[in-house]
Amino acid sequence: TSNAVIELKRYFPQIPIAILVKSVDDDQYEHFVSAGADLVLTPFLSAEEFQQQVRIVLHQNVQRRALEARSQKLYLISSLPLMLRSYTDTQGILFQAIKIVINLLDIQAVTVVVNNGNGYRAYRGSKPLLGADQLVESAILTDPNDPIFWSITHRMTQVYSDVYLNPRISVPEGFDTHSAAIIVPFDYPGGD
Q1: d(C-alpha 162, C-alpha 111), whole Å
Q2: Which of 12, 13, 91, 179 lies in disulfide reach of 132, CB 3.0 to 4.6 Å?
Q3: What is the C-alpha separation between 63 and 187, in angstroms, rounded?
Q4: Opening angle at CA 189, ends 184 and 192, nearest 5
Q5: Helices 47-78 and 90-105, axial angle in degrees (round to 10)
Q6: pLDDT tens, position by position, 147-173
Q7: Which pLDDT does position 79 carry in this prediction?
Q8: 81: cis peptide before it, omega within 30°?
């Protein structure tokens, strides 16, 4: 049975596997779980317990798939510099990056901060984004405690469900219409 579980997991890793056995001791249970079983059931369970166990595993599977999908999207966002390397103009890069993130994450607005050599500038695009001429530009403060500037200088991604809960945030005027934020620093051709 363990070999069958291993084979099923190899070919269908996304599908939860439940095993129904006559009885199981701790060692057998560990053996099945180590092989990849998500659920080990016995006929001694009541109908309610059986249904509850199946519901729990199915719910966990849905959550796992959602996390995997989100991870893949975040990976794509972190890969933007490679995806946009054929662009040579800053406006084209900014427009494509903002458009990709808005569409990929199905969000209303994205702000990209760029060091243009004379300081940091923020470029914001929001739905519906049709052209680079729709990007709104603003200066960014360089307070070392500001979360946006801190993310840039430390090359660390930050995710906020409400960025305004952080008292150190300094959002440029006109950029403050949304509270959720993901700050993702990355390099692209021609700047940082």
Answers
A1: 15
A2: 91
A3: 32
A4: 45
A5: 170
A6: 777 887 887 777 778 877 888 776 656
A7: 75
A8: no
pLDDT for position 190: 46
Q: In the structure encoding, which two tokens stand for residue 88, read together?
A: 């040579």
Residue 110 CA to residue 19 CA, distance in Å, equals 46
> Which positions of the chain have pLDDT values less than 50?
188-192
Please give the pLDDT value at position 183. 74
Q: Of all helices (H) and strands (E), which one includes residue 62?
A: helix 47-78
Please enumerate in sequence order all residues whose Cβ is within 8 A of that of 115, keeping only pairs 6 or more positions apart, or say none: 121, 152, 191, 192
CA–centroid distance for 8 within its chain: 28
Predicted local confidence at residue 97, as pLDDT: 83
Phi, psi of 88 (to 5 degrees): -110, -20
Q: Which two tokens stand for residue 115?
A: 């060091």
Spell out the residues 6+ positions from residue 32 whose beta carbon is closer than 8 angstroms to its own: 1, 2, 5, 19, 21, 24, 40
Amino acid at 13: P
Distance CA 111, CA 138 (A): 10
Q: Where are the beta strands (DSSP E) in the chain?
A: 18-20, 39-41, 109-115, 120-126, 136-139, 158-160, 181-183
* Whole-angstrom distance, CA of residue 152 vs CA of residue 56: 40
Query: 111: helix, coil or strand?
Result: strand
**What are the tokens at 184?**
């993702």
- CA atoms of 37 and 24, how far apart (whole Å): 13
Cα(157)–Cα(39) distance, rounded to whole angstroms? 36
